[in-house]
Write a structure and sequence with these properties.
42% helix; six-stranded mixed beta sheet; five-stranded parallel beta sheet; Rossmann fold; 18 helices; alpha/beta; 15 strands
Length: 467
């Protein structure tokens, strides 16, 4: 039987992959997850060794789309996706020390790990929308990298208008320009006078609100609330582990994360049979996930700007997907918890926290520590890290338990995207933008600054969407 998809809150209809691709957020406010995970036995994982990235992705992703996309079509979509990456290995590993590695996930068009999912998501959407002869509106929020990756992945899609909300003056200049310099009548960049959480709340509210777009247009999500985003990210955990001796030895991963989507993909890889000992949650001073793992309490604090803006998040949306498993996949339990969370903090049960702590470790890394880590890695290896990846390597060192077991840090962005952080670290080396972005600062920008007001944002979208 093909996998179907269910809501973490248990009050939305069960969907096929094609339906969940277009749905994004569930109608009950929950997030979609597969009703069961495909599982690979050890011999099956061994047989994956040596596969190029695109062929491995086909093997891993095929079960999730069964019944919606024929295998031959899926293979073409995947091949086209990873052909645009600048490194032949797609996700190369670089060694920084004894059993310490970084997995470079920044060789896609927009120099961030989001390209792995969003290049594929754009092609999946185009495929399904052409088949259905349907037009949609993408609405997404970004703390820096999702927006440009979504625009790059979807800008050629003739059946899509894309609206990306970013916090005004709270992303790096490179991140902003990667969004606002892309030319296309279907591309709309909205700078919101607020923070990322405000942008993310607007997106979530729009998916459960009364329709505000023309009758022939529906909303689609590109944030990690969309299951296809999480699904695509599972692949690089397998790719890294296989390169380091998996499945014959377990691997650990340190993941810079704010919204929990990237590390949740690692959790799923483990559930699919990949031997993973520990997943390290690496956060900046906006440490909602570290506080949660330490205290068992999920609560909001005032958001603070940092040198790692893509992680400046105080509500970690994808943690709800893990909560669903921690509470034995009870939609009622998650629904009640998230209702409580709307009016304050929630405290997870002792059994839920015990299960989470058995797999996850966490570390909060300050801006000063981030700069020191960039400097240390440059001094010891002449390897330049962006601030998010530096948080990951610092957490990897601090949370390491067994030096004989490989620790892989996900390098989530190219250092050229964050020159201020590099300068603050005292490293004189400057990261250069790759050839396809060398004129980025000369390109004209297009974006609209709007108040932090959901009604005004929705009115703007309704007035500017193509007909």
């Amino acid at each position: 039987m093909p996998i179907s998809y269910i809501s973490t809150r248990g009050r939305a209809p069960r969907l096929s992959f094609e339906e969940v691709l277009l749905a994004g957020l569930a109608s009950d406010g929950g997030l979609y997850v597969p009703d069961n995970l495909p599982h690979f036995e050890r011999d099956q994982i061994k047989a994956m060794r040596g596969l190029p990235y695109n062929e491995l992705a086909f093997v891993i992703l095929k079960p999730f789309v069964e019944g919606s996309i024929p295998e031959d079509d899926l293979k073409v979509l995947i091949d086209d996706t990873y052909a645009v990456f600048r490194h032949e290995a797609v996700a190369p590993l670089v060694q920084l020390g004894h059993n310490q590695w970084v997995l470079e996930l920044f060789h896609g068009p927009t120099l961030a790990f989001k390209d792995f999912a969003l290049q594929l998501l754009g092609r999946l959407l185009d495929y399904v929308l052409q088949k259905r002869d349907q037009k949609v509106v993408i609405m997404g929020a970004t703390s820096g990298d999702t927006g440009s990756a979504a625009i790059e992945g979807c800008r050629r899609c003739s059946n899509i208008d894309i609206y990306i909300l970013h916090p005004h003056e709270r992303v790096s200049e490179v991140q902003r320009r990667q969004m606002t310099t892309v030319v296309g009548g279907n591309i709309h960049n909205l700078a919101i006078k607020g923070n990322f959480d405000d942008c993310q709340s607007m997106v979530k509210a729009s998916f459960v609100a009364e329709p505000f777009l023309p009758e022939n247009r529906s909303l689609v999500a590109v944030n990690s609330i969309n299951w296809a985003r999480i699904m695509a990210q599972i692949v690089y955990y397998f790719y890294a582990a296989l390169a380091l001796g998996g499945p014959d030895r377990a691997v650990n991963f340190s993941v810079p994360t704010g919204n929990f989507g990237d590390i949740f993909a690692g959790y799923l890889a483990r559930g699919m049979g990949l031997p993973i000992d520990r997943l390290v949650i690496a956060t900046n001073k906006n440490d909602v996930l570290h506080r949660l793992l330490t205290t068992g309490k999920y609560s909001r604090l005032q958001l603070e700007q940092s040198l790692s803006p893509s992680m400046d998040i105080t509500v970690s949306s994808n943690f709800e997907r893990l909560m669903f498993d921690l509470y034995d996949r009870s939609g009622d339990a998650v629904f009640d918890l998230m209702q409580q969370f709307q009016s304050g903090e929630i405290e997870l049960s002792a059994s839920a926290m015990s299960e989470a702590r058995a797999l996850f470790a966490s570390q909060c890394v300050s801006d000063d520590e981030t700069c020191a880590e960039i400097a240390r890695v440059w001094r010891d290896n002449e390897y330049l890290l962006d601030p998010h990846s530096a948080i990951g390597t610092r957490a990897a060192w601090d949370c390491r338990v067994d030096a004989s077991s490989p620790m892989v840090t996900l390098a989530t962005a190219h250092p050229a995207k964050f020159p201020d952080a590099i300068a603050n670290s005292g490293v004189s080396e400057k990261a250069k933008l790759p050839a396809h972005l060398v004129d980025l600062f000369e390109r004209p920008e297009r974006f609209c600054v709007l108040d932090n007001d959901l009604a005004k944002v929705q009115q703007h979208m309704a007035a500017t969407v193509s007909v």
